[in-house]
Amino acid sequence: xxxxxxxxxxxxxxxxxxxxxxxxxxxxxxxxxxxxxxxxxxxxxxxxxxxxxxxxxxxxxxxxxxxxxxxxxxxxxxxxxxxxxxxxxxxxxxxxx
Length: 97
Fold this sequence. Notes:
The chain has 3 helices and 4 strands. It is α+β, with helices and mostly antiparallel strands. It has a domain of 60 residues. It has a two-stranded parallel sheet. The protein has a two-stranded antiparallel ribbon with strand order 3-4. Strand 1, helix 2 and strand 2 form a beta-alpha-beta unit. The protein is elongated and about 45 Å long.
């Protein structure tokens, strides 16, 4: 089970101004939506959730070869650019504090 980061808002404030435009995503959109809400409550004005997340929802049809796989909607499945090669300086990791 995922734990809430009690320092999330403070960590974001160290890297961004409340007027900066910020887009947040997670695997399927739920955690990023909660993160956006926390930032909006903290005064961030232009913070957005990537609807359906990075990988989207899983295929529900048991007759599909893709059953159970995250092949519906989401950033990656919508044909948007993506990579597994991330710049660690642009990704929040506790050791990057």
